[in-house]
Design a protein that fits this description.
single chain; about 220 residues; alpha/beta; Rossmann fold; five-stranded parallel beta sheet; 9 helices; binds BIS(adenosine)-5'-pentaphosphate
């Protein structure tokens, strides 16, 4: 399956992507994770992306699209993928459509995770991520057994630079202005599925999987 996850920052895209991708045995491709990996290592791509990410702005389309094209060309993405964080505006969506049609394929489903702004701020201000395996935790809603240590791999947990309240508010504005038009864009194509993304993580995963299964069947 070729799936896109869309939703505001903190909607739980990364959290759900790890479970959905594993249920469907497809790779999870997160543009935010790829950028952060490059920023940490100080690569040329990371240096281009860092200032935009720190401000909560979108990295320019030409940089992002080239990176996604390379990733989708890799072997593990040939039978399907789950995109988390891409596309992020209508030009990126149009480019993705063209790219897939060149490869004689198309997107099957766009899953929208719906949550309100107050929940986003609560979630992002308590988020912690594992340096080693990338597992996402929350200090209140999904705490690890030992503070600052990942239960899965014993890696060290960190707080993202863009999870300060002021930057979170700006990311929400960017989402409203640039990303939310994708909801209508994909609804017009009749491939949009929206689910309530509030409540316990496992319940949201169950909702997502039953919505996806109905769509596949
Ligand atoms: P990116 O990493 O994609 O950030 P984002 O879209 O802002 O989304 P987040 O990762 O903040 O949130 P999420 O929805 O994944 O939530 P999570 O599962 O972590 O992008 C970062 C930056 O990279 C962008 O600002 C931009 O600069 C750049 N970028 C990326 N893609 C780009 C593109 N296509 N074009 C241009 N620039 C791009 O959950 C959040 C917290 O909530 C966690 O602590 C989690 O444990 C908790 N949580 C999750 N679900 C629940 C639940 N059900 N109940 C309670 N808590 C929950």
């Amino acid at each position: 399956m070729r799936i896109v996850l869309v939703g505001p920052p903190g909607a739980g895209k990364g959290t759900q992507a790890q479970f959905i991708a594993s249920h469907l045995a497809i790779p999870k491709i997160s543009t935010g994770d790829i950028f952060r990996y490059n920023v940490t290592r100080g690569t040329a791509l990371g240096r281009k992306a860092k200032a935009y990410m720190d401000r909560g702005d979108l990295v320019p389309d030409e940089v992002t699209i080239a990176m996604v094209r390379d990733r989708l060309n890799e072997d593990d993405a040939q039978q399907g993928f789950l995109l988390d964080g891409f596309p992020r505006n209508v030009p990126q969506a149009e480019t993705l459509e063209k790219m897939l049609s060149e490869w004689e394929t198309r997107l099957e489903v766009v899953l929208e995770l719906v949550v309100d702004d107050d929940e986003v701020v609560r979630r992002l201000s308590g988020r912690r991520t594992c340096h080693r395996c990338g597992r996402i935790w929350h200090v209140l809603f999904d705490p690890p057994a030992r503070k600052d240590t990942c239960d899965d791999c014993a890696g060290e947990l960190f707080q993202r630079d863009d999870d300060r309240e002021e930057t979170i508010r700006h990311r929400l504005e960017v989402y409203q202005d640039q990303t939310s038009p994708l909801v209508a864009y994909y609804a017009d194509q009749r491939i949009l599925l929206g689910i309530d993304a509030t409540g316990p993580v496992e319940e949201v995963t169950d909702r997502a999987m039953s919505a996806l299964r109905r769509f596949i069947d």
